[in-house]
Design a protein that fits this description.
mainly alpha; about 110 residues; about 5% strand
Length: about 110
């Protein structure tokens, strides 16, 4: 896995985790009975975004280590989830690199 792939993987995990963590322990204006005129009762009063961002970073880092380690170790590969064998025959992702590919005839 390249560095760019690792960064993208971490960012995807971070944002997915953040979207899960955002609604946890949110205090809305309706909960506190302090609704500001012109706003919805479900608007957050205390959202604790900084704390949630740090929690998200910690959880994401642990998940990133587990998922990245699984990808790097090769325990699960793309071939394992290729149910319809659309990647072609052989052990390589590219048919031309696999041992099943016919060898090119020498040019005359």
């Amino acid at each position: 896995m390249s560095i760019a792939s690792a960064i993208v993987l971490f960012m995807v995990i971070w944002f997915m985790t953040f979207l899960i963590v955002i609604p946890i322990r949110i205090e809305t204006q309706g909960d506190l009975n302090e609704i500001v005129p012109g706003t919805h009762a479900g608007s957050p009063e205390h959202h604790h975004l900084r704390k949630k961002a740090w929690i998200t970073t910690g959880v994401s880092f642990v998940l990133w280590i587990i998922i990245g380690g699984t990808i790097i170790s090769g325990v699960i590969s793309v071939r394992d989830i290729d149910l319809f064998e659309r990647m072609g025959p052989g052990g390589s992702m590219w048919y031309s690199e696999s041992s099943d590919a016919p060898s090119a005839a020498p040019a005359d």
